[in-house]
Design brief:
Layout: E1 11-16, H1 21-36, E2 45-50, H2 56-70, H3 78-85, E3 88-92, H4 101-107, E4 113-118, H5 125-134, E5 143-147, H6 154-165, E6 173-176, H7 183-193, E7 207-215, H8 224-227, H9 231-249, H10 258-270, E8 280-285, H11 294-298, E9 308-314, E10 324-330, E11 337-344, E12 362-368, E13 372-380, E14 389-397, H12 398-401, H13 403-406, H14 412-422, H15 431-451, E15 456-458, H16 467-473
Parallel strand pairs: 1-2, 1-4, 2-3, 4-5, 5-6, 7-10, 8-15
Antiparallel strand pairs: 7-11, 8-9, 9-10, 11-12, 12-13, 13-14
InterPro entries: G6P_DH (IPR001282), G6P_DH_AS (IPR019796), G6P_DH_C (IPR022675), G6P_DH_NAD-bd (IPR022674), NAD(P)-bd_dom_sf (IPR036291)
Keywords: Carbohydrate metabolism, Glucose metabolism, NADP, Oxidoreductase
EC number: 1.1.1.49
Length: about 475
């Protein structure tokens, strides 16, 4: 199967924070891959903007080094790299002053899409938006891309939205969450809404429970000071896991349209029940395996910030009443994996004697590694000797199912940046969606702070704190094993 490449319009993309880690690891390599794939027109331009006094040649050398480091060898075509590098410019910018803005304005072209990527600290979002407006660099059709965190609570999220709204309309603001750019996440919508097979049974009557797991093997070393002001709840649950939950639980939108999709996601967030204290487990990884502990990495021996969280959540609407959603995410766990597992209920009556061998049907959606899906179903065990049941997967790995060409799946950032150029906001969060998520998360965080409990310690390389097992055990269920 050969994937279709649909080129976007020519554009000017300004990457504020162009010398930063995200630009080096994701943005510049991703744009090169889109150029190599024929999706980014050669009339386009990329303009790096940062505080550093750097020449254009120095910035181009940095971009070339980033491609060499973060693009696989089979995608590094010398001639194409040279062409791509020729599209890159650089300007030194003072985000809170006037330095460089006149130069940037002179670099803007008429008749092309203008996009501005704020790959900087949120504290600079307002200053950049204001100067783009005051210097007449952004026009009515321009788009801005803002990275998370979108605030650290409801009040700061509202303030941030209000700041951006002074200079840009909501349809010009693209709040990027890279999880929504993953191929499997989008395929989740296709599986649900393009197949009559699943939609009739996608509800509490047939689904026993849902597990959403995002596990990482790395710790917070190198960013411990930042992470200690955030924690797993703010860093992962309020945005990434919330978005995955919304896509699982949302009602079918009337059309695959940005606002229609986001309207349905917003309804899910507003239908979330408050979470009781006994339905949450927080953890911190300990030292082990030659690695330091969380408190060592955060340089805060008294830290009460969680590097792991597991929780049981309920969506109070007609579709999901009574079906629990179990969410968990953490650092220094057994394997790096992200998956959604939808466990269906057992048939109301079994006609087989081998009842003890029964296992539920489970639809597993793997986000990483090895993006794909499998459906665990019961079949007859081969061989004579009666009707014995066994469980087997109906497996669809994208790499295997789509063939060599189809398996060349773009990185999430590549897809999302191209959506910005197209003006498609379907996979980006709307301002009211962000605020609703914080309105749900804030009381949970505030309850922890009032209680003052320290998170449970857990050994690195495990599945997290032992207490997390009880979340499911007391409901007669078990967590899925964390493995690659």
């Amino acid at each position: 199967m050969v994937s279709r490449v649909i080129p976007v319009e020519p554009f000017d993309l300004v990457v504020f924070g162009g010398t930063g880690d995200l630009a080096r690891r994701k943005i510049l390599p991703g744009l090169y891959r889109r150029f190599l794939g024929g999706q980014m027109p050669p009339e386009s331009r990329i303009i790096g903007a940062a505080r550093s006094e750097m020449t254009e040649d120095e910035f181009r050398a940095m971009a070339r080094a980033a491609i060499a480091e973060f693009v696989s060898a089979d995608k590094r075509d010398a001639a194409m790299i040279d062409q791509f590098i020729s599209l890159i410019s650089y300007v030194a910018i003072d985000a809170k002053g006037d330095g460089g803005w006149a130069t940037l304005k002179g670099m803007m072209r008429k008749g092309v899409v203008r996009a501005f990527y704020f790959s900087v600290a949120p504290a600079l979002f307002g200053a950049l938006a204001e100067r783009l407006h005051d210097h007449n660099i952004a026009d009515a059709k321009s788009r801005i891309v803002v990275e998370k965190p979108f605030g650290r609570d409801l009040d700061t999220a509202r303030a941030l939205n209000a700041t951006l709204a002074k200079h840009f309309r909501e349809e010009q603001i693209y709040r990027i969450d890279h999880y929504l750019g993953k191929e499997t996440v989008q395929n989740l919508m296709a599986v649900r809404f393009a197949n009559i097979l699943f939609e009739p049974i996608w509800k509490a009557q047939y689904i026993d429970h849902v597990q959403i797991t995002v596990a990482e093997t790395v710790g917070v070393e190198g960013r411990g000071a930042y992470y200690d002001t955030s924690g797993a709840m703010r860093d992962m649950v309020q945005n990434h896991l919330m978005q995955l939950l919304c896509l699982i639980a949302m009602e079918p939108p009337y059309h695959f349209d940005p606002n229609a999709v986001r309207d349905e996601k917003l309804k899910v967030i507003r239908a979330l029940d408050p979470v009781e204290h006994q339905d949450i487990v927080r953890g911190q990884y300990l030292a082990g395996g030659g690695q330091k502990s969380y408190v060592d990495h955060s340089e805060n021996p008294a830290s009460k910030t969680e590097s792991y969280i597991a929780m049981k959540v309920h969506v109070s609407n007609w579709r999901w009443k009574g079906t629990p959603f179990y969410l968990r995410t953490g650092k220094r766990l057994r394997a790096r994996t992200s998956e959604i597992a939808i466990t269906f209920k057992e048939p109301p009556h079994s006609i087989f004697d081998d009842a003890e061998g029964w296992r539920e049907n489970v639809l597993v959606i793997r986000l990483q590694p090895n993006e794909g899906m499998n459906l665990m179903v019961m079949i007859k065990e081969p061989g004579p000797g009666g009707m014995r049941l066994t469980q087997v997967p109906l497996d669809m790995s994208f790499a295997e199912a789509l063939g060599e060409d189809g398996a060349d799946i773009p990185d999430a950032y590549e897809r999302l940046i191209m959506d910005v150029i197209r003006g498609n906001q379907t996979l980006f969060m709307r301002g009211d969606e962000v605020e609703a998520a914080w309105a749900w998360a804030d009381p949970i965080i505030q309850a922890w702070e009032r209680k003052g409990d320290k998170p449970r310690g857990y050994e690195p390389g495990t599945s997290g704190p032992e207490d997390a097992l009880m979340l499911l055990h007391r409901d007669g269920r078990r967590w899925r094993e964390i493995r690659e």
